Amino acid sequence: MRFATFAAAAALTFATASLAPAAFAAGDAMGTKTGTITLSAKSADVGIGYTWGDAKLRFGGKTYKYSITGGTIAAVGFSHIEGKGTVYNLHKAEDFAGTYAAAHGEATLGNGLGGLVLENKNGVRIKIETATKGARLASSAEGLTFELKN
């Protein structure tokens, strides 16, 4: 299954102590770089959690604004998340919106770092590196929905 291979690449990228070599290998497996994304979100969890926030996609010389909502399994705590990343395999802007499955890891006590690798049904992939503030521990599956703002 395509997502199983993708999830394995995500786990390798964020589970190693030296991220640079793994990130390069995972970037190759992600596909063709087509855009960038920045996001700001909050997450509150007690086993099962909720994430909400905003994102900006830079694609084809334009900037698109999105709202983010989602859920997390196997996490506890609260954090404010700031992230930036690379979008892969996006061929038209309307293929970006929708629900993404994620392999996710975060450890925050005060300030922390995390990573998120996402894929939607259109084959669009996102690799995001995050800086977090709060108190949260997550090693989980996550689903995030990006909805275009008017």
UniProtKB/TrEMBL annotation:
The keyword Signal applies. Keywords: Signal. It comes from the Bacteria. Residues 1-25 form the signal peptide. This is DUF1134 domain-containing protein.
